[in-house]
Specification:
- The protein is built from nine helices and eight strands.
- It is of the alpha/beta class.
- β3 and β4 form a beta hairpin.
- The structure holds cytidine-5'-monophosphate.
């Protein structure tokens, strides 16, 4: 049985999750937000008040943590943590946890397991380059950093009208995360050689979705 694999990578705020969700819905297949997995583990580290530099302890936690998706909702040790993983604190610290090689080995193994048994759209930073090297479609989404920060700001404002963060703060955070994600040694944020680059500033979300579905239909 051939399972469809669609890999969507790119920097923070490029529109990956919005696009991946739409594709998954259209095709009736699973959407796996791998960033949410790194965030869930980071949330646990924060909750246990573990020092972010204590790699040994974080590895230990990673080994005994259960992270799973049920109906598209992320569960950490059996508890829905969809809201908690979006906090500013988790967002600030996630790239520190995600750069630990052992953490990546554990989460990548989980991601591969899901993709070996289901049709999936998976988004992240290393999906086309590392997690699903034989994906049917590999897309690398980009947009200028100011555009990505503006989008994130509006998205956050919509959820929280008392938002104290300014768009400049978000831009600073995005730049720092992109730098850490691109420069780390273990499977960094990188465009896979055979990925198609789509700039989401130039197209609407629906145009990008259509383009990805077109590429997929030509493959199968
Ligand atoms: O996608 P999102 O912005 O929620 O991802 C949060 C963080 O998780 C990223 O900044 C990155 O450090 C990490 N990540 C990763 N590899 C992935 C997905 C996310 O390192 N495949």
């Amino acid at each position: 049985m051939h399972y469809i694999q669609i890999a969507i990578d790119g920097p923070a705020g490029a529109g990956k999750s919005t696009i991946a969700k739409k594709i998954a819905k259209k095709l009736g297949i699973l959407y796996i937000d791998t960033g949410a997995m790194y965030r869930a583990l980071t949330y646990k580290v924060v909750k246990l008040k573990v020092d972010i530099n204590n790699i040994e302890k974080i590895n230990e936690i990673a080994k005994e943590t259960n992270i799973e998706f049920r109906n598209g909702i992320i569960f950490l040790d059996g508890i829905d943590v969809s809201l908690e993983i979006r906090s500013q604190e988790v967002t600030k610290l996630v790239s520190f946890v995600a750069q630990i090689p052992e953490v990546r080995v554990i989460l990548v193994e989980l991601q591969k397991k899901v993709a070996n048994n289901n049709h999936v759209v998976m988004d992240g930073r290393d999906i086309g380059s590392n997690v699903l090297p034989n994906a049917d479609v590999k897309v690398f989404l980009t947009a200028s950093v100011s555009e990505r920060a503006k989008r994130r700001y509006l998205e956050m404002l919509e959820k929280n009208s008392d938002l104290t963060l300014a768009v400049e703060d978000i831009e600073k955070d995005i730049k720092l995360r992109d730098k850490m994600d691109s420069e780390r040694e273990a499977s960094p944020l990188i465009k896979a050689k055979d990925a198609i680059v789509l700039d989401t500033t130039l197209f609407t979300i629906d145009q990008v979705v259509e383009e990805i579905l077109n590429i997929l239909s030509k493959k199968n």
